[in-house]
Structures are given as structure tokens and as C-alpha cells.
Amino acid sequence: MFATPCSIFTFLTVFYLPSLVRSDCECGYLVGNTLYTDLLETDFLHANNVTGDWQAQEYSVTPHDSRGEYGKKASLDNVVPNPTRRKSDWAGAGTKGGDAGLQLIVRGGIPKDNLIPAAELVSVREDLYYGSYRTAMKLTGVNGTCGAFFWYRNDTQEIDMEFLSSQYNDTSNPVNLVLQSPESARDGYDASTTGTFDLQQLPFAPDDGFHEYRFDWSPDSVSFYADGKLIETMKSAIPTAAGHITLSHWSNGNPLWSAGPPEEDAVTTVEYFKAYFNSSDPQRLKDWAKRCTDPKPTNATCVVPDLTTAPNGNTSAKTYFFTQDPGMAPNQTVNGLSEQKSL
Known about the structure:
Elements: H1 5-15, E1 28-31, E2 34-36, E3 38-43, E4 54-56, E5 59-61, H2 63-66, E6 71-74, E7 79-82, E8 101-106, E9 115-123, E10 128-138, E11 146-154, E12 157-164, E13 174-180, H3 182-186, E14 197-201, E15 211-218, E16 221-226, E17 229-234, E18 244-250, E19 266-279, H4 282-291, E20 301-303, H5 313-316, E21 333-334, E22 337-338
Parallel strand pairs: 1-20, 6-9
Antiparallel strand pairs: 1-2, 3-19, 4-9, 5-6, 7-8, 8-19, 9-18, 10-15, 10-19, 11-12, 11-18, 12-13, 13-14, 15-16, 16-17, 21-22
């Protein structure tokens, strides 16, 4: 852990103002006036496998432990890369049919073993601290699942954006925004009683196309976004330690949450993941200090582009990746290939 993480965050926020000139980014990446030292980007539209930065999960949870009518069974078989048919494409059908991207599948029907097959992907890095985290997904329209994008430290420090397909209809398309806390744990992980739960209506149907979901985490707040527009800010139960990111799609038959199981296979597709953050790893901070020798030149910091339209179609889905631009990700992890060695 950093010795003084809050003071470091304040230093980076106050003393670095954005440059609009593209650069080598040796001092980091700017979201607003806040500088982040590290990045993690994955382009799932063109990924043939899930390795390097991510680990597909394989485990079983009993109905009792899942707090549902059924248990869950995460399987590698339900995390399916489905890249575009051509590298030049940024939308359309994948090589396996259906929407291109990483498929997270919940299998349909009543499971014989009482465990509903599900999908879960977690980041290998567990040093993800204050930062801006975003993913583009197309949620399933099949009733009876929960699609989730969340940061996790433990059951009392968690930042969630969860999508319940049973809640979608012609007049309602909500996202469930949750900060888990010691208080919610004492109430059976029901954050609705603690003031850190909110149901926000989206101005679009999550199953109609790809949209970017994002949360920005700072020492005193967590702000949630959809397609670049702020939808909620929470200022209590803010996590205070580093963790990892999870992308998941599951069902346990609980009528008060995921509902289900789905009657047919349900597919949520991930287009990309992008994070600009400060690391809790002391070596990463040392590396940053070594490479950021002079923050004044315009080639020292890079502004993270704001998303202005939903990432659908070959034009809008071709979003910017620093890791796909040579020289813009020094000493960073690049598409699963480690450039994170110490300087």
C-alpha cells in the first residue's frame, strides 16, 4: 500500500492540469484535473482469448451460500471470446455469430444439479485504487439474470453497477448502483437500508446495443456514468483500500434480485474495458517517479478522451486506446503483454 494514499491523490489532483496535446504519457493519464499513474485497457472486440490481464473463473456456490433458490456454477466454457471477423471491423457479427466481443453466458433451463451455469471474469491485478473505471457492454434481454460490472476488495468494500434483466420493460430500464459496506453486511448485504443504493433509470434499453458504464472513485466520493453522462454520486461508505475488477453474468433464482433461471441461454457481450487509476503497489509508485522526471512538457501527460456517443457501429465503437497507439503507454500493461516491469 502507499504510505499516504490520500495525500498522494490530492497532490496528483491539484498540481497536474490537462494538456490537450497527445503525448508519451510518461507522467500518466488525466481524467478532468486528476492524474492517474497507471492504465489497464482491453479491446475484447479483437481478442481471440482471455489471458494476461484477466482470469476466467471456475467455482460452485450452493443455493444457501448464493442466497437464492439455486446455486451458481461459474465455468470457463461460459466466457467465450467472439472477435470480429476482420481486424478492421469495430462492430457486427463475431466469428462465432452474434455480437462481436467477449460473451458472458448464463445457460438456460432448470439445472439438474441445482447450480445455474454462469460466467465471471476478474482482473489479475489487485492493486486497483482510486481511478476511473469503464466498460462497454450489451446486456442480455433474456429474463432472469444479473449482469454486473464491479470493483471488489471484500464484502464490505465494493462498488457495483448491476443490471437485472427482469426489470427491463418498455417504460423502465434501470441500473442498480451499490456501495457495499459494513452496514449493508450487517443487514444481510442489503445496501438499500444504508443510503448507498440507488436505482437509476437509463435513457436507453441496455439490451438494445452497446453502452459505456463507468464509475470514478476518489477518496471522498464515487460517481457513476452512462455513456459519459453523470447519473449519480455517492459520498458515504467510500472504499479505502485497493481491489480488483469483476465482470460477471449470473442467476440464482432469487425473485428479489436476479430472478430466473432464464428459459434460454442468455448472453451479455463486453466490447472493452478501460481503467485509469493509481496503484497500491509501492513498486508502481517508484516506477512512476522514475519515468516522470519532468511533468511540464506537453508530452508528459495525456488526457483521457470523453465518450460522447454510445459505442455502437464501426464509427462510434472505434474508441481510443492508448495501448494501441505506439509510445503512449510507457511501463504499462499492454493487451496482456507485460510492459509493467520495474524501471
